[in-house]
Amino acid sequence: MTVPAEKQSCDRCGSCCKQGGPALHRPDFSLIQEGRLDRYHLVTIRKGEPAFLPFADQPAPVPSEFLKLQGRQGSWCCLFYDEQARACSIYENRPMACGLFDCTAPEPILVITGKDLLTRFDCIDPDDPLLPLVRRHDREFPCPDMEMVTAGLNSPADRLSLLADLTPLVNGDLAFRRQLTAQGTLSVAAEMFYFGRPLFQLLLPLGVGIRETPSGVQLL
User: Fold this and answer.
1) E-strand spans in the chain?
2) Which of 69, 124, 158, 165 is most buried, judging by how many CB atoms fall within 10 Å of its CB?
3) Mean pLDDT, to the nearest integer, of 193-206?
4) pLDDT for res 8
5) Which domain holds residue 157?
6) How many domains does the chain have?
7) pLDDT in tens, 83-124
8) Collapsing DSSP states into helix, strand and coil, what is residue 89?
9) What is the distance between the alpha carbons of residues 193 and 83, in angstroms, rounded to a whole number?
10) Are residues 26 and 74 both part of a single domain?
11) Burial letters for 27-50: b for 16+ Cβ neighbours within 10 Å, e otherwise?
12) Do the domain assignments include residue 165?
Protein backbone atom coordinates (compact mmCIF):
# COMPACT_ATOMS: atom_id res chain seq x y z
CA MET A 1 0.00 0.00 0.00
CA THR A 2 1.54 3.27 -1.11
CA VAL A 3 0.81 6.57 0.64
CA PRO A 4 0.09 9.70 -1.43
CA ALA A 5 2.79 12.31 -0.89
CA GLU A 6 0.25 14.96 0.07
CA LYS A 7 -1.32 12.84 2.81
CA GLN A 8 -0.29 14.21 6.22
CA SER A 9 -2.68 12.41 8.57
CA CYS A 10 -5.25 9.60 8.64
CA ASP A 11 -8.39 10.50 6.69
CA ARG A 12 -10.17 7.23 7.49
CA CYS A 13 -9.97 6.02 3.88
CA GLY A 14 -10.10 2.39 5.11
CA SER A 15 -7.31 1.17 2.83
CA CYS A 16 -5.45 -0.52 5.70
CA CYS A 17 -8.62 -2.31 6.91
CA LYS A 18 -9.60 -3.41 3.41
CA GLN A 19 -6.15 -4.88 2.84
CA GLY A 20 -6.58 -7.34 5.69
CA GLY A 21 -7.22 -7.73 9.40
CA PRO A 22 -4.15 -7.25 11.57
CA ALA A 23 -1.82 -9.92 12.88
CA LEU A 24 -2.21 -10.49 16.61
CA HIS A 25 0.68 -10.13 19.04
CA ARG A 26 1.09 -11.59 22.52
CA PRO A 27 -0.27 -8.46 24.27
CA ASP A 28 -3.53 -9.11 22.38
CA PHE A 29 -4.01 -12.39 24.26
CA SER A 30 -5.81 -10.50 27.01
CA LEU A 31 -8.53 -9.54 24.50
CA ILE A 32 -9.24 -13.25 24.01
CA GLN A 33 -8.86 -14.20 27.68
CA GLU A 34 -11.33 -11.51 28.75
CA GLY A 35 -13.84 -12.37 26.03
CA ARG A 36 -13.49 -9.06 24.23
CA LEU A 37 -12.37 -10.89 21.08
CA ASP A 38 -13.78 -14.27 20.10
CA ARG A 39 -11.12 -16.68 18.87
CA TYR A 40 -13.60 -17.90 16.27
CA HIS A 41 -13.30 -14.46 14.65
CA LEU A 42 -9.65 -15.30 14.04
CA VAL A 43 -7.94 -17.21 11.26
CA THR A 44 -4.63 -19.03 11.53
CA ILE A 45 -2.14 -18.07 8.85
CA ARG A 46 0.23 -21.00 8.70
CA LYS A 47 3.91 -20.79 7.86
CA GLY A 48 4.37 -20.33 4.14
CA GLU A 49 0.86 -19.07 3.41
CA PRO A 50 0.49 -15.82 1.46
CA ALA A 51 -0.66 -12.79 3.46
CA PHE A 52 -0.35 -9.03 3.30
CA LEU A 53 2.33 -7.44 5.47
CA PRO A 54 2.01 -3.75 6.42
CA PHE A 55 2.48 -1.43 3.44
CA ALA A 56 2.93 -4.33 1.01
CA ASP A 57 1.23 -4.14 -2.38
CA GLN A 58 0.94 -7.91 -2.80
CA PRO A 59 0.53 -10.88 -0.42
CA ALA A 60 3.70 -12.89 0.17
CA PRO A 61 4.52 -16.19 1.96
CA VAL A 62 4.92 -15.57 5.68
CA PRO A 63 7.97 -16.92 7.56
CA SER A 64 6.07 -18.06 10.66
CA GLU A 65 2.55 -18.82 11.84
CA PHE A 66 0.31 -16.17 13.36
CA LEU A 67 -3.32 -15.35 14.08
CA LYS A 68 -5.15 -12.52 12.39
CA LEU A 69 -8.69 -11.18 12.27
CA GLN A 70 -10.77 -12.92 9.64
CA GLY A 71 -11.72 -11.29 6.37
CA ARG A 72 -15.27 -10.71 5.27
CA GLN A 73 -17.04 -12.99 2.78
CA GLY A 74 -13.89 -14.37 1.25
CA SER A 75 -12.18 -11.00 0.86
CA TRP A 76 -9.13 -9.59 2.64
CA CYS A 77 -11.25 -6.77 4.17
CA CYS A 78 -11.23 -6.97 7.98
CA LEU A 79 -14.33 -8.59 9.44
CA PHE A 80 -14.86 -5.62 11.77
CA TYR A 81 -14.49 -2.80 9.27
CA ASP A 82 -17.78 -0.96 8.66
CA GLU A 83 -17.42 0.35 5.12
CA GLN A 84 -20.54 2.50 5.28
CA ALA A 85 -19.44 4.25 8.47
CA ARG A 86 -15.75 4.05 7.51
CA ALA A 87 -15.05 2.93 11.05
CA CYS A 88 -13.98 -0.04 13.17
CA SER A 89 -16.85 -1.80 14.97
CA ILE A 90 -14.51 -3.00 17.78
CA TYR A 91 -12.46 0.17 18.04
CA GLU A 92 -12.24 0.12 21.85
CA ASN A 93 -11.04 -3.50 21.76
CA ARG A 94 -8.93 -3.37 18.60
CA PRO A 95 -5.65 -5.32 18.46
CA MET A 96 -2.35 -3.62 19.21
CA ALA A 97 -1.31 -3.42 15.56
CA CYS A 98 -4.43 -1.40 14.71
CA GLY A 99 -3.58 1.14 17.40
CA LEU A 100 -0.04 1.54 16.06
CA PHE A 101 -0.86 1.60 12.36
CA ASP A 102 -0.57 5.01 10.72
CA CYS A 103 0.06 5.09 6.98
CA THR A 104 1.72 8.50 7.29
CA ALA A 105 4.11 7.31 10.03
CA PRO A 106 5.03 3.66 9.38
CA GLU A 107 7.84 3.23 11.90
CA PRO A 108 5.82 2.02 14.95
CA ILE A 109 4.01 -0.75 13.06
CA LEU A 110 7.13 -1.81 11.19
CA VAL A 111 9.00 -2.19 14.50
CA ILE A 112 6.58 -4.93 15.66
CA THR A 113 5.93 -6.59 12.29
CA GLY A 114 6.79 -10.29 12.49
CA LYS A 115 7.75 -10.08 16.18
CA ASP A 116 6.12 -11.59 19.27
CA LEU A 117 3.25 -12.99 17.22
CA LEU A 118 0.31 -14.79 18.78
CA THR A 119 -0.47 -18.28 17.42
CA ARG A 120 -3.33 -20.72 17.87
CA PHE A 121 -1.09 -22.83 20.12
CA ASP A 122 -0.98 -19.94 22.61
CA CYS A 123 -4.78 -20.04 22.75
CA ILE A 124 -5.54 -23.79 22.72
CA ASP A 125 -5.78 -25.50 26.11
CA PRO A 126 -3.33 -28.42 26.54
CA ASP A 127 -6.25 -30.79 27.17
CA ASP A 128 -8.27 -29.60 24.16
CA PRO A 129 -9.19 -32.79 22.23
CA LEU A 130 -8.59 -30.98 18.95
CA LEU A 131 -4.94 -30.21 19.74
CA PRO A 132 -3.57 -33.62 18.60
CA LEU A 133 -5.64 -33.29 15.43
CA VAL A 134 -4.21 -29.85 14.76
CA ARG A 135 -0.67 -31.22 15.02
CA ARG A 136 -1.55 -34.18 12.81
CA HIS A 137 -3.09 -31.87 10.20
CA ASP A 138 0.08 -29.76 10.15
CA ARG A 139 2.20 -32.86 9.54
CA GLU A 140 0.03 -34.40 6.83
CA PHE A 141 -1.22 -31.29 5.01
CA PRO A 142 1.39 -28.55 5.27
CA CYS A 143 1.24 -25.42 3.17
CA PRO A 144 3.11 -26.09 -0.08
CA ASP A 145 5.99 -23.86 -1.15
CA MET A 146 3.92 -21.06 -2.67
CA GLU A 147 6.82 -19.51 -4.56
CA MET A 148 7.48 -22.87 -6.21
CA VAL A 149 3.76 -23.29 -6.90
CA THR A 150 3.56 -19.85 -8.52
CA ALA A 151 6.60 -20.57 -10.68
CA GLY A 152 5.21 -23.96 -11.71
CA LEU A 153 1.83 -22.55 -12.66
CA ASN A 154 3.53 -19.97 -14.85
CA SER A 155 5.45 -22.69 -16.68
CA PRO A 156 3.44 -24.49 -19.40
CA ALA A 157 5.84 -27.42 -19.14
CA ASP A 158 5.31 -27.86 -15.38
CA ARG A 159 1.70 -26.77 -14.84
CA LEU A 160 -0.12 -30.07 -15.34
CA SER A 161 2.33 -32.15 -13.30
CA LEU A 162 2.22 -29.58 -10.49
CA LEU A 163 -1.59 -29.67 -10.37
CA ALA A 164 -1.43 -33.48 -10.32
CA ASP A 165 0.95 -33.34 -7.34
CA LEU A 166 -1.22 -30.82 -5.47
CA THR A 167 -4.52 -32.62 -6.04
CA PRO A 168 -4.11 -35.37 -3.36
CA LEU A 169 -2.88 -32.78 -0.85
CA VAL A 170 -5.91 -30.55 -1.47
CA ASN A 171 -8.33 -33.47 -1.32
CA GLY A 172 -6.74 -34.88 1.82
CA ASP A 173 -7.03 -31.52 3.53
CA LEU A 174 -10.71 -31.19 2.60
CA ALA A 175 -11.52 -34.77 3.62
CA PHE A 176 -9.82 -34.27 6.99
CA ARG A 177 -11.93 -31.18 7.71
CA ARG A 178 -15.17 -32.67 6.43
CA GLN A 179 -14.78 -35.77 8.53
CA LEU A 180 -14.33 -33.73 11.70
CA THR A 181 -17.31 -31.55 10.83
CA ALA A 182 -19.51 -34.55 10.03
CA GLN A 183 -18.58 -36.17 13.33
CA GLY A 184 -19.51 -33.00 15.20
CA THR A 185 -15.91 -32.69 16.41
CA LEU A 186 -15.38 -29.39 14.59
CA SER A 187 -17.80 -26.52 14.08
CA VAL A 188 -17.69 -24.43 10.92
CA ALA A 189 -17.00 -21.35 13.04
CA ALA A 190 -13.97 -23.02 14.65
CA GLU A 191 -12.39 -24.37 11.47
CA MET A 192 -10.41 -21.27 10.47
CA PHE A 193 -9.01 -20.85 13.97
CA TYR A 194 -7.91 -24.47 14.46
CA PHE A 195 -6.84 -25.43 10.93
CA GLY A 196 -6.48 -22.19 8.97
CA ARG A 197 -7.60 -21.74 5.39
CA PRO A 198 -8.22 -24.82 3.23
CA LEU A 199 -5.37 -25.37 0.80
CA PHE A 200 -7.56 -24.87 -2.26
CA GLN A 201 -8.30 -21.31 -1.09
CA LEU A 202 -4.58 -20.50 -1.23
CA LEU A 203 -4.53 -21.56 -4.88
CA LEU A 204 -7.57 -19.59 -6.07
CA PRO A 205 -5.74 -16.21 -6.30
CA LEU A 206 -3.11 -17.93 -8.46
CA GLY A 207 -5.72 -18.77 -11.08
CA VAL A 208 -6.33 -22.39 -10.04
CA GLY A 209 -9.98 -23.34 -10.27
CA ILE A 210 -11.68 -26.31 -8.65
CA ARG A 211 -14.37 -28.72 -9.75
CA GLU A 212 -16.21 -31.14 -7.48
CA THR A 213 -16.27 -34.67 -8.88
CA PRO A 214 -17.49 -37.97 -7.39
CA SER A 215 -13.87 -38.87 -6.66
CA GLY A 216 -12.99 -35.53 -5.09
CA VAL A 217 -11.89 -32.06 -6.10
CA GLN A 218 -10.25 -31.60 -9.48
CA LEU A 219 -7.81 -28.71 -9.89
CA LEU A 220 -8.16 -26.75 -13.13
Assistant:
1) 42-45, 50-51, 60-61, 66-69, 81-82, 87-88, 210-213, 216-219
2) 69
3) 95
4) 66
5) 125-219
6) 2
7) 889 889 999 999 999 988 887 887 888 888 889 999 999 999
8) coil
9) 24
10) yes
11) ebeebbeeeebebebbbbbbebbb
12) yes
